[in-house]
Amino acid sequence: MENNNQNSDLIEQEQTIEKLSESEKRYREILDNLDQGYYEVDLNGKYTFANKFQANFLGLSKEELIGTNYGLFYDKEGEKRVFEKYSEVYKKNLPKSLIEVETIGPNGIKLTFEASINLKYDSNGKKIGFYGTIYDISERKKLELELAALNKELEQKVNIRTVELSESEEKWRSLAKNAPNLITIVDPDGNIQFINRSATGKEAIGTSIYEYIQPEYYDIVKRTIKRVSDTGEPGSYEVRAVNQQGPISWFETQVGPITQGEKTVSLLLISTDISERKQAEQKLRESEEHFRTFAEQSFMGITIIQDGVIKYINQKLADIHKRSMEQLLKFKPQDFLKSIHSDERGKIIEEMNALIKGDKQISNFEMKSIREDGKIIWLKQFSKKIEYNGRPAILTNIIDITERKEDEIKLKVSEEQYREAYNRAEFYKDLFAHDISNILQHILSAMELSDLLINNPENLKDIQANLNIIKDQVNRGATLVSNVRKLSQLEEYKKSIKPMDIMNTIKNTIEFIKDSYQEREIDIQLDSISNEDYIQANDLIQDVFENILINSVKHNNNPKVEIIVRFSREVVEKIHYLKIEFIDNGAGIDNIRKERIFQRAYNEDISVTGMGLGLSLVKKIIDSFNGKIWVEDKVKDDYSKGSKFIILLPEE
Length: 652
Hints:
There is one protein chain. With 652 residues, this protein is an alpha+beta fold. It has 5 domains: 12-141, Beta-Lactamase; 181-273, PAS domain (Beta-Lactamase, 2-Layer Sandwich); 280-395, Beta-Lactamase (2-Layer Sandwich), CATH 3.30.450; 401-488; 495-652, Histidine kinase-like ATPase, C-terminal domain (Heat Shock Protein 90, 2-Layer Sandwich). It is built from 20 helices and 22 strands. It is elongated, with a radius of gyration of 50 Å. The chain starts with a helix and ends with a strand. The relative contact order is 0.05. Residues 601-613 have low confidence and may be disordered.
């Protein structure tokens, strides 16, 4: 009898060991094939155990990971945060703590995961380390694929009944208990065979999963379980769970088969609480409704473009472009680009590319656009990169600033007209003061010379010459007044520009210069292949020639003043010019003075005391003829040998 009892105890013990082995095998299979990590570290932060997911997540094998410090997988900030959380759990004896942290995966991509941290004790109750789970929340969208792979792997493991236990049943139960997901095993009828925790707080083994979901979801759950059982292919569903008090939360459940041979005997359900996501989706829908209400009442045109497609426009944008909303919604970005003025397109493309690439967060600029009716309008555009339905998009606000721009243009034109009127007044004042001063000086000189000669009858001829000079200067004064009057009407009469025979003008000017400087030996040679050369100018051209020739005489210390006036033709940018060069043997002009000689602020003797308009005023006259004037050295790089004034005047 005693032997029978001993045999019975041995059999019962063997059965218990076998059940324990099968239980550990099931938990090991679940643990090693979950889409979440399980780890154990000692008090120094070194891994003492990790499941496959944990090792793969960190880019190592399980064997390589054991003994590695957790800090190697984080940057300084991440390592500090994890250490502080470990310290908090240790010091406060917290039963469990969660932390969200980032690491760099084996492919170099930044990953975000949620980890639980629990204190680990030895059999004597002494703290010896930590254990917990991690859940890759950055790869949630790939859960279905991972679950399919997990189910396939589970099926293979169940079929070959792999016995590979390395940890105790408590370890596997701890993993399941502390996993962030709700893990359930049910039979094909939906009866619960295993659950890692109860959502209702009561014993759930043996109950039906349909007790925990709202009735309207029964059909989709039944159809999903049947399809997975029949095909062996994974599936999923979303349901709202309930308890006695009513709805409590939303769950997304991935369903995979557990098979024996080719038959599905159970189903593995991994449920994730998606209540926050559902709430966020609801808030997003409400936010979109608020946005639409705002957009439809906005004074700005609004558009959202995503993946090169217009996702949204408001009525104001259609009004700005004088198009219907239906037309604009059919537009592609390149169609909008065509409506932008050609001067602005390059800038727009550059700004949009910078936004898309992330080089800019906000783009703000003004541009010209062409409306449907052909009118050019001014728009102010604000664009920024946003998340729209979970993906990047470009939000653009547009304001019609045409009226403001037109006012700015009118103001600018008014300012320019005022400034031009002021400059003309200054020009007339300088012109008159400069030339009258020279005319009066010539008259005074002739009168003083006549006073010296008047008592001697033999000097009658010279006195008569001086009187002629005075008469000529009086005539020149009258001409000056006439010219100033003409200048005051430059805008109205376009400076009285007309075809002129330049040869007669230059010959008269040469005679005047020689009469004005009878005491100087002056030799002025004309170098021209034609007796008639016509240019587009007016009577002020004589003042220009006089000024240049007078300066050539006044600033020449040689006994004999030698001047060559050379005529030729030149084509510049398809415009035909008559080129006139005044080449003298005077004192010359150094390079610094060459740069300033035609500037209004230039006050040196070269233009102040000479007869005529002054070189700064000469340039204004030449500019009014659409001509050009500059000065060079007579001998290249040696200004002391004399100057060469060059004028280009259009022939037509």
